[in-house]
Amino acid sequence: MQLALNQLSSHLAKGLRSLYVLHGDEPLQQQEAADAIRAAARAQGYTERSSYTVMGAHFDWSGVLAAGGSLSLFADKQILEIRIPSGKPGKDGSAALQQLASSAQGNDSTLTLISLPRLDKATKTGAWFGALDGNGVSIQVDPVERGALPHWIAQRLALQNQRVAAGEEGQRTLQFFADRVEGNLLAAHQEIQKLALLHPEGELSLAQVEQAVLNVARYDVFKLSEAVLSGQVARSIRMLDGLQAEGEAEVLVHWALAEDIRNIKRVKDAMAGGKPLPMALRENRIWGPKERLMERLLPRVSDARAADLLQAAHAVDGIVKGLPSEGWPRDSWQALRQLAMQLAQAGR
Predict the structure, then answer these.
(1) What class of enzyme is it (predicted)?
(2) Domain CATH code at residue 94
(3) Whole-Å CA distances, 71 to 76, 109, 168, 294
């Protein structure tokens, strides 16, 4: 049974299931979800707890199975926690997890809590995850996207009886806060808690937030790609500055930008050959958020502009490898910023 993260509280209020699976790549929210399940379990008399972390292909699952099938000498109910950081339990683990899943039905003495990283589609359609999902509750914990981050911050502030000003000033405050913590939700949580220590309950001004909140944002090249394709120039520059400061490899940043440009050119060529846009996108394996961005961008990019972008990507490829190109900055990061701006402005 799949459950949305925001439905967990109401679900726990109605009663506990004997098996929960948390999977995703947002550590703060996964930890909070696990804490909520543990708290509900303790309230229901699950006073014993055992924990296992699966590391390596030769992990001994016999102890896990024994724990899952045994009762404590000192308590009627226990919590069994299994962490699989790799998301790959292996052959023995797959069999063990299916056994645990089947024994979970009707088992009121053991609550099993399994924590996994973000899973790909093949894993989620595999036998062991299917058994867990079919016999328990699975919750996918997704990152908070940039567009939803101001609202998330406002909700967290409200939990400690703080708020920003109403109207435009408050929106500027939340946007500033989001820019400072993007991609680092755990640090965002800590910055919110710091505001509770520094200021009393009530309204927070933009000046107070600017003075208190540190720049703890973390970026990756895939989010950079989405920002550039969305035409978000200021955010794209900020992300490039952050990636440079974090020591990201220029060649990886160039690959992300160049791959988007190559996809634009391929799809434009396919459309020139008579294929409709949805078919051209599918044939080039463009789907999800990137598909929606391309659907908006492609009709605004001329064939000539697509060709120019491809030539620009070729020039910057040489620059990041130490080969100067006429009309382009010699510095790799300056060249990457110029390429990103050309792509961001292509759909305007």
Answers:
(1) transferase
(2) 3.40.50.300
(3) 7, 7, 58, 55
CB of 333 within 8 A of CB of 240?
Answer: yes
Residues 239-276 have pLDDT tens digits of: 999 999 989 999 999 999 999 999 999 999 999 999 99
Report the pLDDT value the prediction gives residue 70, as an integer from 0 to 100. 57
Residue the block writes with tokens 């209020």? 13
For 147, 199, 239, 261, 287, the CA distances from 220, given in Å and listed in that order, are 16, 33, 8, 18, 19
Burial 6-39 (b: 16+ CB within 10 A, else e): eebeebbeeebbbbbbbbbebebbbeebbeebbe
Residues 26 and 90 in one domain: yes
* Rounded Cα gap, residues 294 and 277, in angstroms: 9
- Residue 279 sits in a domain whose CATH number is 1.20.272.10
124 and 179: one domain?
Answer: no
What's the predicted TM-score (pTM) here? Answer: 0.74
pLDDT in tens, 290-325: 899 999 999 999 999 999 999 999 999 999 999 999
Comparing C-alpha atoms, which of 81, 87, 88 is closest to residue 63?
Answer: 81
Number of domains in the chain: 3
DSSP state of 151: H
For 85-139, how does the pLDDT look when each residue is reduced to its tens digit (9 = 90+)?
999 998 899 999 999 998 887 778 889 999 999 998 889 989 999 999 999 999 9
Rounded CA gap, 34 and 187, in Å? 19
Contact 152, 146 (CB under 8 A): no
Q: Which pLDDT score, from 0 to 100, does residue 67 have?
A: 79
- The answer to whether 168 and 200 have CB atoms below 8 angstroms apart is no
What is the CA angle 258-319-182, rounded to 5?
A: 55
If we measure between CA atoms, which residue out of 164, 86, 91 comes closest to residue 126? 91
User: Residue type at 92?
Assistant: D
Q: Quick one: how far is CA 307 from the chain centroid?
A: 33
